From TrEMBL:
Ranges annotated as spanning the membrane: none
A GO MF term: oxidoreductase activity
Keyword Oxidoreductase: yes
Domain NADP-dependent oxidoreductase: 16-311
This protein's name: Aldo/keto reductase
Keyword Iron-sulfur: no
A cellular component term, taken from the record's GO annotations: cytoplasm
Domain of life: Bacteria
SUPFAM superfamilies tied to this protein: NAD(P)-linked oxidoreductase
Source organism (scientific name): Streptomyces tagetis
Keywords for the protein's UniProt record, in alphabetical order: Oxidoreductase
Classification via Pfam families: Aldo_ket_red
Gene3D superfamilies: NADP-dependent oxidoreductase domain
Amino acid sequence: MSTRSLGTTGPQVSALGLGCMGMSALYGDADRAESIATVHAALEAGVTLLDTGDFYGMGHNEMLIGEALRTAPAARREQALVSVKFGALRGPGGDWLGYDGRPDAVRTFAAYSLRRLGVDHIDVYRIARLDPDVPVEETVGAIAGLVEEGHVRHIGLSEVGAATLRRAAATAPVSDLQIEYSLVSRGIEDEILPAARELGIGVTAYGVLSRGLISGHFARDRQLAATDFRAHAPRFQGENLQRNLDLVDALREIAEGKGVTVAQTAIAWVLSRGEDIVPLIGARTRERLAEALGALDVTLDEADLAAIERAVPPGAAAGDRYPEAQMAHLER
Ligand SMILES: NC(=O)c1ccc[n+]([C@@H]2O[C@H](COP(=O)([O-])OP(=O)(O)OC[C@H]3O[C@@H](n4cnc5c(N)ncnc54)[C@H](OP(=O)(O)O)[C@@H]3O)[C@@H](O)[C@H]2O)c1
């Protein structure tokens, strides 16, 4: 598989990363054996970047990845890089309580993650959202301390704006910014992406399929469990959902004309936006993974890109990316 660099100071990783969140949380039930088989299939196909968060299933996702790595062939395990998000505070019922970026908390979160993953270092470590009560310099400085001690290899960021990117980069080398970027979430293009490029910081893009909304597989009448993030996400509600799925129908015409799927078109579009962008794929079955990896063989020429832009113009999506309370933690 082709590789891309995570910024000018980060590692070389596969052009697509595997986001493992949905294997433990937020998108309804997942099958453990199939999840592990999907991680193994991804590693076998040449995926080297696995993304997780310590709060995905309250440690479940890290333990799942730990098991998948332990049971993978040694050669594949050695190539795998694990990116971990920390800092989200959650209650026993899964409620979101805020974020903790205090240096002592950073070190504590890391100690637990290392143990759950069963590794001697974390490849990329980042706070999931900034703690409004702790200057970013302190949080990033604490991760830099872990880098010095060998517990972490690279420092990342997640969902921050251009000003924070600059402050963090002035504190320590930052490999990549993890942030939502897709055909229907193009907010980073004006300010954040240019700032990342200026600073030599790569982008790991999540929500490339807008959490399944623009995958081509999301049915108009799909019923979601109350624990599914999408049951509360504005883009998946009522009229918004119907309008957004109209966009998918327009995208489907272009995909079918090229003999590829809607998901492959959406992933290929993000891949086409720059060599410094690594899409994270939220596949949790081998079938979905195989489809997603097929995007690497899709070439979008100028005419394709123009047609896609007409079908899904910037700002076309109806509804915010997150429910209101969670929008408050985003710096844009
Ligand atoms: N930094 C952050 O704030 C943040 C936030 C969210 C996520 N992330 C990371 O980014 C990763 C990806 O995010 P995401 O899961 O929201 O992304 P996504 O790829 O936009 O959405 C994944 C959803 O798309 C559906 N899907 C349909 N066809 C697919 C295909 N061919 N390949 C993959 N998925 C397909 C899956 O549904 P079914 O499984 O039901 O088929 C899954 O529910 C996460 O796993 C997590 O590691 C980071």
